[in-house]
Write a structure and sequence with these properties.
Strand content of chain B: under 5%
Bound molecules: adenosine-5'-triphosphate, magnesium ion
Mean pLDDT of chain A: 94
CATH topology of chain B: MetI-like fold
CATH superfamily of chain B: MetI-like
Low-confidence stretches of chain B: none
Subcellular location (chain A): Cell membrane
CATH class of chain B: Mainly Alpha
Low-confidence stretches of chain A: none
Order of helices and strands of chain A: EEEHEEHEHHHEHEHEEHH
Order of helices and strands of chain B: HHHHHHHHH
CATH class of chain A: Alpha Beta
Protein name (chain A): Glutamine transport ATP-binding protein GlnQ
Membrane topology (chain A): Peripheral membrane protein
Strand content of chain A: 15-25%
Largest sheet of chain A: 6 strands, mixed
Structural class of chain A: alpha/beta
Shape of chain A: globular
Helix content of chain B: over 70%
Shape of chain B: elongated
Number of strands of chain B: 0
CATH architecture of chain A: 3-Layer(aba) Sandwich
Largest sheet of chain B: none
Oligomer: heterodimer
Radius of gyration of chain A: 18 Å
Family (chain A): Belongs to the ABC transporter superfamily.
Largest interface: A-B, 34 and 23 residues
Main location (chain A): membrane
CATH architecture of chain B: Orthogonal Bundle
């Protein structure tokens, strides 16, 4: 059997001040899998995926990324791990002083992965894929939120990571722009890119996820296929969460 | 006794004034350049909380901002000379002005870096950029742009404060004027003349920096 891309076991995270954000979290993600993380605010979703690329330190348990033990390693070694782990943030976090092409090519060029021409070709290919071929020289501030988030996805993809982490990629968007970003994410899911997505988009979870994880108070309460989770949630807390969501959506 | 203002006197003094102006510009521009670099380095040390060096930078800023420039100047010119490390007027002046301006620029650049959205560092790290590259390619280009107006203020102060250098015998504008006054007692003429010259170079410097700001604001280069 192929070794899982991400293996998390008994992961704990306690923030300074005593907040226990993660409690004994176990999660294994295989290559090509799409995992959607659901849960109420403050349940530890962001903390979980931020531990996977070292933006948070952990206080217990273990994480393996692509077979390598990563908890407690130095920032220098994290850099190497992060080359394989892309991240897309809620607020895009594009570099405002660079144009679209500059944002996408900065890291591949500076990490020594690609030469300029190669990186720009790859950037154009990615921009074309997300429907922004005409924006390569645009300053990022001139783009809409949905366009910026698609550029941010290209920026992460340009590093050719083995796994992409999404932290509420559509939560900062105006409703009419959510669809264009989800469409790109669905396409990536179909192409077999390994993804862990924190999102409140139930439609995306249903249609794109291989597995849904429901978190509450730092724990994984339920882990199931989207079909099972949405039609027959096992845990009481999952049921209450889904009720709350459906009332919102109605 | 009535004082007769004499334009021809100023005219006659122009060669001297030009020599002084040249020295003022030389000392100021060298000091401004050093103070910008020094301020940037110290601000970066503080941003990354580099052990020891960041504490030294903090103490340095505090010390420079809490003591008079003239005292600093005398300390460097006479104090170091008494230790056998005399630098001479010009370099003592440059050192004092650079250290003084560097302290203020540390605070200016710190302010600029603080305006860089925190998420950008996480974005850069998650892309596998080294912290040093993040600093050079993201934080400084954004932060330095933000603090250009503040650095202009500091640079104008450095330029004006170069007039203190007359106290250690550097033949800059004010020194030239004082010398002429000591010989000819044409106080109004000389101080009006150098006042106007200082005003002009400050205005020119401001205009140049505004141009620079506009140039840097406009294009969003590829890195
Ligand atoms: N830097 C921090 N310092 C202290 N506590 C933190 C920090 N970051 C998060 N927390 C706490 O950890 C818990 C989990 O936070 P986390 O951001 O992971 O939740 P989340 O599920 O992503 O919520 P949301 O849906 O609001 O984004 C919360 O109680 C939060 O207040
Ligand atoms: Mg979150």
């Amino acid at each position: 059997m192929e070794r899982p891309l991400i293996e998390i076991s008994a992961l704990n995270k306690e923030f300074r001040g005593g907040i226990q954000a993660l409690r004994d979290v176990d999660l294994t993600v295989a290559s090509g899998e799409v995992v959607v993380v659901l849960g109420p605010s403050g349940s530890g979703k962001s903390t979980l995926i931020r531990c996977i690329n070292g933006l948070e330190t952990t206080t217990g348990g273990s994480i393996r990324v692509d077979g390598q033990q990563v908890n407690g390693i130095s920032q220098r070694r994290w850099r190497k791990v992060r080359l394989n782990v892309g991240m897309v943030f809620q607020n895009y976090a594009l570099f405002p002083h660079l144009n679209v092409l500059g944002n996408i090519t900065l890291a591949p060029r500076r990490a020594g992965i690609m030469r300029r021409a190669e990186a720009e070709d790859e950037a154009r290919r990615l921009l074309d894929m997300v429907g922004l071929a005409d924006k390569e020289t645009a300053p990022v501030a001139s783009l809409s939120g949905g366009q910026q988030q698609r550029v941010a996805i290209c920026r992460a993809l340009a590093m050719q990571p083995k796994v992409l982490l999404f932290d509420e990629p559509t939560s900062a968007l105006d409703p009419e722009m959510v669809g264009e970003v989800l469409a790109v994410m669905k396409r990536l899911a179909q192409e077999g890119i390994t993804m862990i997505c924190v999102t409140h988009e139930m439609g995306f979870a249903r249609s794109a996820a291989d597995r849904v994880i429901f978190m509450d108070q730092g724990e994984i309460v339920e882990m199931a296929s989207p079909d099972n989770f949405f039609t027959a949630p096992k845990a009481e807390r999952s049921r209450r969460f889904l009720e709350l969501i459906s009332r919102h959506d109605a | 006794m009535s004082y007769e203002f004499s334009f021809p006197y100023i005219w006659g003094a122009t060669p001297d004034l030009f020599q002084g102006l040249w020295m003022t510009l030389l000392v100021s521009l060298v000091s401004i350049a050093i103070s910008v670099v020094l301020g940037t380095v110290c601000a970066c040390l503080r941003l990354f909380k580099v052990p020891v060096l960041s504490q030294i930078a903090t103490a340095y800023v505090h010390f420079m901002r809490s003591t008079p420039l003239l005292v600093q100047l005398y300390f460097i010119f006479y104090g170091l000379a008494s230790l056998g490390l005399g630098l001479g007027g010009f370099w003592s002046g440059v050192l004092a002005l650079s250290l003084w301006g560097g302290a203020y620029n540390t605070e200016n650049v710190r302010g600029g870096l603080a305006a860089v959205p925190k998420g950008l560092q996480e974005a850069a790290l998650s892309l596998g950029l080294r912290p040093a590259l993040y600093l050079r390619l993201v934080a400084l280009p954004i932060g330095l742009r933000v603090c250009i107006p503040a650095m202009l203020n500091t640079s104008v102060s450095v330029l004006k404060n170069s007039s203190y250098l007359q106290a250690i015998g550097v033949a800059e504008l004010t020194f030239v004027a004082m010398n002429r006054v000591a010989m000819d007692f044409r106080t109004l003429e000389m101080f009006l003349a150098i006042g106007l010259i200082y005003l002009t170079i400050v205005l020119l410097l401001s205009a140049a920096v505004r141009r620079l700001e506009a140039v840097l604001q406009a294009p969003f280069r590829t890195a």
